[in-house]
Design goal:
By secondary structure, the protein is α+β, with helices and mostly antiparallel strands. The protein has two domains: 133 residues, D-amino Acid Aminotransferase, Chain A, domain 1; 165 residues, D-amino Acid Aminotransferase, Chain A, domain 2 (Alpha-Beta Barrel), CATH 3.20.10. It has nine helices and 18 strands. Strands 1, 2, 3, 4, 5, 6, 7, 8 and 18 form a nine-stranded antiparallel beta sheet that branches. α7 crosses α9. The longest helix has 14 residues.
């Protein structure tokens, strides 16, 4: 599908959504209803105290064969981790997969508000109990929203090194996909935009020197003969696309992948001496995108424009997702579209 940078990535959700409810540890079967407003008390834990988690998944459909749902088991495992971190009831895996598949099976999910061969899937779990105190909710709602997506423009990113605010601290929520991990980004993202940048480069909360994430994306750099990415800890979200890139690099191409801390100082020095040759981001929503520059206070760190490893890995991933290459790791779940 040709890129359409003049049109928005997202316009609206699909006409129908999936929903299930939990009370006293028992979940209702998933049902489908018109996508829209839900009755929820303003004092609900999901609104008042942020007891809410979600996932972001993708599926692909060529209009003829079954839809291809990407690594849904990994997304479910991460949802379980997020729910456990916030003491929330976890939807059973069979219910989760059924609710997602129900959305994919409906052809209108792919065609409204515009037709697309890519469907973004947003499972959400939030607490319904209302109380004046932050008490884990027993009544919980699980919703599956979907939305057709256009291809995001692939222009290289300019990142704003955020040295005042932090994404996460040790012992916090950084490794879980909670609503709180995204609400805090509004002000820093506005600062980045004001500085003429596309997104925030998150640094560690202790020294503001170690690179952790780029907005909602994981980061990779080719340094010498290695593909380097920040090592996972409880301040970094374990991205599904990150995991896929690591597998492709190691197992398909024999590239040495190193997970370790990376500092801005090391990056600047490696660019200067010519050992850092590529930098790119990886995420489910925005896929794989190159980094052109990091704006760090008064200095700009400019990256090489040629990205042969990123291009190769992006082609590999896209081919597997769309059925143009063998799914040798069993990442795809096929779902018939009715």
């Amino acid at each position: 599908m040709a890129e359409q940078p003049h049109l928005p990535l997202f316009e609206d959700w699909s006409p129908q959504m999936g929903i299930a409810d939990c009370g006293d540890s028992d979940w209702t079967p998933p049902r489908r209803t018109t996508c829209g407003k839900l009755p929820i008390h303003p004092g609900a834990m999901g609104i008042q105290f942020g007891q809410s988690v979600f996932e972001g998944c993708r599926a692909f459909w060529n209009g003829a064969d079954p839809a291809r749902l990407f690594r849904i088991d990994e997304h479910y495992s991460r949802l379980v981790t997020s729910c456990e971190r916030l003491r929330m009831p976890v939807p059973p895996e069979q219910l989760f997969v059924e609710a997602v598949a129900n959305q994919l099976q409906d052809a209108t999910s792919w065609s409204s508000p515009f037709p697309s061969d890519t469907l973004y899937i947003r499972p959400v779990v939030f607490g319904q109990d209302d109380h004046v105190m932050p008490i884990p909710s027993a009544r919980t709602t699980f919703v599956v929203l979907t939305a057709p997506l256009r291809l995001f423009p692939r222009e290289p990113l300019v990142l704003f090194a955020e040295r005042e605010f932090s994404r996460a601290a040790k012992g916090g929520l950084g490794h879980a996909k909670t609503s709180a991990n995204y609400a805090h980004q509004y002000l820093p993202t506005w600062r980045a935009k004001e500085a003429g940048c596309d997104a925030v480069l998150w640094l560690d909360a202790e020294t503001h020197e170690r690179i952790e994430e780029a907005s909602t994306m994981n980061i990779f750099m080719v340094i010498g003969e290695e593909l380097v990415t920040p090592s996972l800890q409880d301040t970094i979200l374990p991205g599904i696309t990150r995991r896929s890139v690591i597998t492709l690099a190691r197992e398909r191409h024999g590239l040495k992948v190193v997970e370790r801390p990376i500092t801005l100082t090391e990056v600047a020095e490696a660019i200067e001496d010519g050992t850092l040759t590529e930098a790119f981001t990886a995420s489910t929503a925005l896929q794989i995108r190159s980094i052109a520059r990091i704006v760090d206070r008064e200095r700009n760190i400019d990256f090489p424009q040629e990205t042969p490893w990123m291009d190769r890995l992006r082609r590999d991933l896209d081919a597997i997702q769309r059925g143009e290459a063998d799914d040798e790791w069993g990442w795809i779940t096929e779902v018939p579209v009715l």
